[in-house]
Predict the 3D structure of the following.
Amino acid sequence: MRPIATIGYQAATMPSFLRSLGDAKIDLLVDIRAVASSRRPGFSKTALAANLREAGIEYLHLRSLGTPAEGRAAARAGKHEVMRQIFLEHMDTPAARAELASLAELVEARRVCVLCFEADPAQCHRSIVVSELGKLLPVRVQHLMPEDE
């Protein structure tokens, strides 16, 4: 079984986020947000990649594994089952399937962590992504939960 980690930055500071990745010996963070911007300092694509680079971790954005706009709206409204259905349909698109296959290849060779916003993996599409990944290769999932001291 190949290890894969997931992480959400909703409740994290950059130091706790980087510490969680380092403790898990992650060498590649795969951003699976459809839109890699954030109002949280340090978590937009360019700043995040720079922070990761300083910590010795590579960054890759796989946009097609992100939740479509209508799914993000459902999640913001607390309609997690609606978000789940929208995202599962999205996962059947050629772009999402191609990026899932790319993710599988990366997991075969690297210590990978997938990133999204939600702190709770049960409420986030990243759990669906790793579940779908598990249909392509056997994985052992670790949900990282960055905590501030």
User: Anything to note?
Assistant: The chain has six helices and five strands. The mean pLDDT is 95. The chain has one domain: 2-144. Strands lie at 2-8, 28-31, 58-61, 112-116, 139-144.
